[in-house]
Design brief:
CATH architecture of the largest domain: 3-Layer(aba) Sandwich
Number of helices: 8
CATH topology of the largest domain: Rossmann fold
Strand order of the largest sheet: 3-2-1-4-5-7-6
CATH class of the largest domain: Alpha Beta
Order of helices and strands: HEHEHEEHEHEEHHH
Strand content: 15-25%
């Protein structure tokens, strides 16, 4: 009997945000668990797997052999989006730092060809939101999850630029429309991070008053949504 791929909370969320499509691409595929699940469950029919690491591609190939999915995948070595030639319905870039994801999007934007994007990073989410805006896309979903002892956000981006404020780049826009039961815990954690940052800013030898004011404003924004409990009747979708 073939093994059924099981996904952790972060990859399960990425899977849920994937549109059904004929062809997708997973950038920096590594263990290839997300693509395997997309193929096994019929969410996607064919997937391009890319990675800069030859060993990662070998791991992905071995996984696809074990799952008998090799006829539905194309493995390609290359940096970022550079290996892509065909038009994909969806492209996922997950499991990297925010600066790396940002560079992948900015340097390879001509390779996107209108594909919708699934994005997730361990750090620097504002840089990803900024890159999404710079390539003429917008985020329509930002969903939190808790996995392996930490919180993550998974973003979905669609073609078409929309005006985005600096505050939305820092905190998120669609995030505050999420119905996830992890939203309030996520916001509380982000507020805690900002509180710690504020303590450091206030104790600095030469405090940056502008930055201190911005951090305090962001803390108030989190407080507002936490206090409301994000009751559907109270949501405005803006920050």
């Amino acid at each position: 009997m073939l093994r059924t791929i099981m996904l952790d909370a972060r990859l399960s969320l990425a899977y849920d945000l994937y549109d059904p499509c004929e062809l997708a691409a997973d950038i920096g595929t590594d263990h290839a668990h997300l693509p395997a699940a997309l193929l096994q469950r019929g969410r996607c029919q064919h997937i391009i797997l890319t990675d800069l690491s030859e060993s990662a591609l070998r791991n992905a190939r071995d996984e696809m052999i074990r799952l008998r999915l090799t006829d539905r995948v194309s493995l390609r070595r290359g940096d970022g989006l550079s290996p892509l030639t065909e038009k994909c319905g969806m492209i996922s870039v997950t499991g990297m730092g925010g600066r790396t994801v940002r560079e992948i999007l900015l340097s390879g934007k001509e390779k996107l060809q209108g594909a919708s994007l699934i994005l997730s990073a361990h750090t620097d989410l504002p840089l990803i939101r900024e890159a999404v805006s710079l390539i003429g896309y917008h985020t329509d979903r930002e969903e939190p999850c808790f996995c392996a002892g930490r919180f993550y956000l998974v973003l979905r981006a669609r073609p078409g630029a929309r005006a985005t404020t600096e505050k939305e780049l820092r905190l998120g826009g669609p995030l505050f429309e999420s119905a996830s039961d992890q939203l309030i815990p996520y916001l509380k954690r982000r507020r805690e991070v900002l509180e710690n940052s504020l303590k450091g800013l206030l104790s600095a030898e030469s405090p940056d008053r502008a930055l201190i004011g911005q951090v305090r404003e962001d803390i108030r924004a989190y407080d507002d949504y936490i206090e409301k409990g994000l009751n559907p009747h109270d949501r405005t979708g803006s920050v």
